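> forwarded from #structure-qc
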């Protein structure tokens, strides 16, 4: 190296550093970063990120410790972190998530969530609100947070944001029929987990049918010993012509013990879900009548558990002994389910046997009711009084309007919205469940050759998202009786848990947004954008959802 070159280098090293341009300040996140489903009521992007790490501390008020510990358990496997939960403030500079009980947050399920680079703060008036805030927080983390095994080299960052959120409706439901095809308890629990991820809070459990009785009643063991098992199962197209039916000759059996029922109810409660049981009456009763023929209109005729889809002709009689039998059943149901609502069905009660029976016609005259419709109303009112005296509320499908509605009944409107409108106008609470938008046993594509078999119908994802639970024509006061809406998973043609997941998701993701998010903020294009990210979460959760 020449001496001149050395001199130039020495001069450059000795010279002061040139002034550097100021660093570009971090910019607030773009709204497209946030892919929460259901969409929060208010969301304001912030600047920077919070990083969840092994030294992050969960600070929780005493009333929220249970919720905090559940969150810590939920994220322990994928992150490898065993986050400490404590009630005292952490040392200065410690990254932390603070759960604070704040009565100023308006609403039992509402929450406020603020994420900054230093800390995450959650405020809620109840543990339920805090639970939903933490479900939102999970969706702000990478989708791998839902995996059940350690995920290496994942930055567990949360974008800075301020969220104020509350549900639009109190009833955000999912129904599951386990009577036509029995579903194992593991599937029921997984479905409850997925409901909680979507802030759904009512699990309508359809437990009895013509084709199977699935709940143990200790006083009447034949309900499951006989009624819980059918000899064969109709397969092929949904039809009534005997000459065209084909059958799977294998028996189809199964029921939930009372211990299992309690386990499911407790599991749901931990996820802030109310389990609403359905015990069908007076129709859809053939499995019970097969077990105890004296409950039917023709007690000298032995019938079997129905092996064909559709509605069996068997219907409970109106004897006082039958009323007492069913109230005995409900007594055990009440011991198992703390739900304020008990569903008694009331739908599709074929009354041909009532019409043809001299015994029933004499009973109609004895009771002073006008006809078979009023006899059904008398039947339902007896159950309504029984449940009301025990601090519960009867809920039934919209046929319970026929012949006069029981005084304290809540109506579940499935044959369109007319029944819901009539009930709301009469001052009764309503859950909207119209087959036009919420029956998820329907096909999801017009090209049914590419879809698993279904009962029929066509209910695609965008149609579900378009649903509005409050029908036109209701006044503001009448609209207050619309508690919310729910999706139905009838299982005539849903044979396995994997098939049920395919029919449920992501249509239930869409309905979750319908019943949670403000109506004026629902946007299909934006929902579909968020759904692409949401698919990664469903993948991590091992859900067999339908790709869109």
């Amino acid at each position: 190296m020449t001496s001149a070159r050395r001199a130039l280098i020495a001069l450059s090293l000795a010279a002061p550093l040139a002034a550097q341009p100021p660093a570009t300040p971090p910019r607030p996140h773009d709204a497209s970063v946030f892919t929460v489903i259901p969409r929060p009521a208010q969301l304001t992007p912030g600047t920077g990120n919070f990083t969840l790490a092994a030294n992050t501390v969960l600070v929780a008020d005493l009333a929220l410790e249970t919720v905090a510990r559940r969150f810590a358990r939920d994220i322990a496997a994928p992150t490898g972190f065993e986050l400490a939960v404590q009630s005292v403030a952490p040392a200065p500079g410690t990254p932390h998530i603070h759960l604070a009980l704040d009565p100023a947050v308006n609403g039992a399920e509402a929450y406020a969530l603020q994420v900054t680079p230093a800390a995450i703060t959650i405020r809620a008036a109840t543990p339920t609100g805090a639970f939903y805030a933490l479900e939102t927080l999970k969706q702000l983390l990478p989708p791998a947070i839902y995996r059940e095994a350690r995920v290496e080299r994942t930055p567990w960052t949360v974008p800075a944001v301020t969220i104020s959120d509350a549900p639009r409706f109190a009833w955000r439901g999912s129904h599951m029929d386990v009577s036509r095809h029995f579903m194992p308890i593991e599937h029921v629990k997984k479905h409850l987990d997925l409901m909680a991820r979507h802030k759904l809070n009512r699990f309508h459990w359809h437990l009895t049918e013509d084709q199977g009785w699935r709940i143990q009643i200790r006083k009447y063991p034949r309900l499951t010993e006989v009624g819980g098992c059918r000899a064969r199962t109709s397969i092929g197209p949904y039809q009534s012509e005997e000459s065209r039916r084909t059958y799977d000759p294998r028996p189809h059996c199964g029921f939930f013990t009372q211990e299992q029922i309690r386990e499911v109810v407790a599991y749901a409660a931990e996820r802030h879900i109310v389990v609403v049981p359905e015990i069908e009456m007076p129709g859809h009763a053939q499995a019970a009548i097969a077990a105890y023929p004296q409950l039917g209109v023709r007690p000298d005729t032995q019938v079997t558990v129905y092996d064909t889809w559709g509605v069996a002709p068997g219907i409970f009689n109106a004897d006082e002994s039958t009323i007492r039998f069913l109230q005995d059943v409900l007594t055990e149901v009440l011991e198992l389910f703390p739900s304020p609502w008990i569903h008694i069905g009331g739908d599709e009660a074929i009354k041909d046997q009532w019409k043809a029976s001299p015994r029933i016609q004499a009973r109609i005259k004895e009771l002073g009711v006008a006809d078979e419709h009023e006899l059904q109303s008398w039947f339902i009112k007896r159950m309504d009084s029984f449940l009301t005296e025990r601090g519960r509320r009867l809920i039934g499908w919209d046929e319970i309007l026929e012949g006069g509605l029981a005084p304290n009944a809540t109506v579940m409107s499935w044959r369109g919205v007319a029944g819901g409108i009539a009930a709301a106008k009469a001052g009764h609470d309503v859950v909207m469940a119209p087959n036009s938008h919420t029956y998820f046993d329907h096909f999801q594509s017009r090209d049914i050759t590419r879809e698993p078999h279904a009962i029929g119908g066509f209910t695609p994802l965008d149609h579900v998202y378009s649903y509005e639970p409050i029908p036109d024509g209701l006044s503001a006061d009448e609209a207050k009786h619309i508690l919310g809406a729910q999706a139905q998973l009838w299982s005539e043609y849903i044979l396995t848990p994997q098939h049920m997941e395919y029919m449920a998701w992501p249509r239930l993701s869409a309905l979750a947004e319908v019943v949670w998010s403000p109506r004026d903020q629902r946007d299909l294009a934006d929902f579909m954008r968020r759904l692409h990210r949401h698919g990664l979460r469903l993948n991590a959760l091992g859900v067999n959802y339908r790709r869109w």
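QC bot note: Residues 442 and 457 are 5 Å apart (CA to CA). The two ends are 68 Å apart (CA to CA).
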